[in-house]
Amino acid sequence: MVKSVVIVGGGTAGWMTASYLKAAFGDRISVTLVESKNVPTIGVGEATFSTIRHFFAYLGLDETDWMVDCHATYKLGIRYENWRAKGHYFYHPFERARVVEGVSLADWWLYKRPSEDYDRDCSVIAALCEAGRAPRSLEGNLFEQGFLDQEDETSIRSTMAEQTTQFPYAYQFDTVLLAKFLTRYGTDRGVRHVLDDVVEAGVDERGHITHVRTKESGDLSGDLYIDCTGFRGLLINQRLGVPFLSYQDTLPNNSAVALRVPLDMANHEFGPYTKATAQDAGWIWTIPLFGRIGTGYVYASDYCTPEEAERTLREFVGPEADDLAANHIKMRVGRTENSWVNNCVAIGLSSGFVEPLESTGIFFIQNAIEQLVKHWPGGQDDDMLRKSYNRQVANVMDGVREFLVLHYVGARRNDNDYWRDAKTHRVPDALAERIEQWQVKLPDENTIFPHYHGFESYSYIAMILGLGGLQVRPQAGLAMMDDVAANKELRLIRDEAKSLVERLPSHYEYLAHLHALRGTRSS
Description:
Number of helices: 16
Number of strands: 23
């Protein structure tokens, strides 16, 4: 039975792992985290999935416990701009399509075409994004959709696999501040924190790690070693030699340049969503935090130089970008062949990464941690546990790759070589077959990637109908069905959305209220 863990690397991956293991096992295991003072957190993405609430709930944290410390904001979805054509935008909201007469409202919409905007016709969340509304009242109540509230979950610990409802929002936060918050959380619960540089790792004749040697603190030993060293893969790739499988043939974006833009949020309107704005060689993310904007240009180096990318990003941001230091990042897109080998588990960027188009970086971390606890080694049948773990982690990443490839294949935009070539890059065989099927029948749970990967069929539908590049046909049977109920549901969504926009506070108003409450409690 593993009773001692050494985590190499801090940042979001390291501290999420350390905190979760202490929440799961308490004092029955010892956890040591060693991180360098000289290696900065990459923090490519600061936005998350709605499933992140399971992580905080597992730690016994309500959002009011950590949001202020991490400058967090709400994320109800992603706004895609210029992917169909310049000037066009649509939302990918955290909202499942309703069902009318046994048929998805998305199919009814495709048949009836009440407008060109599927998201705004069939989603109340799109209206909240448009109006810049928070998902909660000033009293803290979640807007009416029958969702399980966060407060109900802090006493019932669950993981992503148990999610049955589609929670309506995720968060956007400063990953550096989150790591600091979790450092306090973890060390308060017994995590040993070592600030030092790891200079080598010892390996025995079986290929198991025996210790990691630090520059000043000597050797650190444990039963299990977790590699959270980012793209370096210090233990899993460099020391154990586990191969890395690139996704570059299907997802060519391999670089990014990022800026942290301070802004007075009281005088700057910001919606409860992440923005992905298509550019000539990739896309720019815009993530509003409380007090600043996180923004960056993800691009393919075959179509754009770092200098061109930085210039494009600065022009996109405007005068606020003047004199700000830019962070250039070379991304390793793909996954380590097996994330768990012998007594070493890679979590975070050392395990795998895809461009942050759907905010999957922290989702990958959370999934890996949850699965590690579910597959905790006990000394017997560990080989089978490792195989099961590696299969699940690989399926998640391969599934996300498919979903991201759909974004480029399905985008109508084709005004330059980058966007034209995006339609010619290799498409995984199974995805190519699925796309053919979706053109005659919109995706459902039986026709998307068959293994858990964080996305449901409603996400595929939102992207296909928003991107506009695939020719899709409505179900022929709808022409012979009564559409009274479908018309009623479309009107109901419009009326619900209007009512919510009128009653809910603005995104900024709610967050300012939350900060004021926190200040009152602290004084």
